[in-house]
Amino acid sequence: MENKQRVLVVDDEAEIREMLTEYLTSHGFEVTAADGGKAMRELLEKSVPDVVLLDVNLPGEDGLTLARYIRERFNLPIIMVTAANEVVDRVVGLEIGADDYLTKPFDPRELRARIKSVLRRYQQASTATATASKHETSQRVAFGRCTLDLDTRRLLDDKHQEIPLTSMEFDLLKIFAERPNRVLSRDQILNLTRNRDWDPFDRSIDIRIARLRKKIEADPDKPYTLKTVRGSGYMFVPNPD
Hints:
- By secondary structure, the chain is α/β, with parallel strands linked by helices.
- The chain has 8 helices and 12 strands.
- It has helices spanning 14-26, 37-46, 63-73, 87-96, 108-132, 167-177, 186-193, 204-216, and strands at residues 6-10, 30-34, 51-55, 78-82, 100-103, 140-143, 146-149, 154-156, 162-163, 183-184, 226-229, 233-236.
- The strands form 3 sheets. Strands 2-1-3-4-5 form a 5-stranded parallel sheet, sandwiched between helices. The protein has a 4-stranded antiparallel sheet with strand order 6-7-8-9, with helices on one face.
- Strand 7 (146-149) and strand 8 form a beta hairpin.
- Helix 3 (63-73) runs parallel beside helix 4 (87-96) and helix 4 (87-96) runs parallel beside helix 8 (204-216).
- The radius of gyration is 19 Å and the shape is elongated.
- The N and C termini lie far apart (53 Å).
- The model is unreliable at 131-137 (pLDDT under 50).
């Protein structure tokens, strides 16, 4: 029998926790719930879930602080939940490393689709890494001060230390690596990553590019590797020989 995928819901509203627990459980997920940071940490110490659904507005430690805590310690998808007017929080959440966001109020069916989407991306990444580990050689591409290993899906700095990447960040680097010196529009990026949940008119892509620049560029404020082509999109410029 296939193991159920585990969801950790972190929300201070009891009604929302109960509703999501009931809905997701009825659709085959194993759900645990926490009302804040303390309870979340206790649950993570006992068992690491497959995905975390994290509300931004929490008493005490907010969801952004908790997302940073999770990202520093675990390689698992994070879906942030924000109120409709919390654009800044949503932007910061993506910068921290959240994989997706959902705006309240939301349809539980949309939430389930988002959960399945991020889980699928992470499972594909895990499968690719496991397959690549069986081979002695790997395909590597230089990105600024870093090197991207396409087979193991790892980003290494100039001291060969691994730099954490989310699944979506790897997907972005991969499509650029496969298309050097080509300008890619936001809509092309959406199609190539097969992630139409992004809105090409909001800042989601720009935020992830900015976050990648902090990891790979010698000077993120003056990017050389991932260049902005005004009015067109972005272009990957390989390191000179």
